[in-house]
Amino acid sequence: MVDIRDAVVIGGGSQEVKIVFFGLRARNEGKKVEQNLSNAKQTLRHRPNESIEDQVKRLQEDLIEMCDANIALRKQLGAMTAL
Predict the structure, then answer these.
(1) Where are the domains of the chain?
(2) How far apart are alpha carbons 34 and 42 in whole angstroms?
(3) What's the pTM?
(4) Most buried among 20, 24, 50, 79, using CB within 10 Å?
(5) Within the chain, where are the H helices?
């Protein structure tokens, strides 16, 4: 995990480098959010003849995927705030 202290070291005090760094981080976290939510959406699609146990297992997996998306969204917002 990278935080603002790392950006200062990486950037050597240059505002432009910090802005690019956090801009790239925000973009990458946004891509993670999109991927996690796409995965959850795909898994949630109805499957005929699926047992209740399999449905519950899929729902559990999707909830984890959605939690991962929320964590990535929080990181994205943090990177955007650092800009």
Answers:
(1) 4-82
(2) 12
(3) 0.66
(4) 79
(5) 4-11, 15-44, 52-82
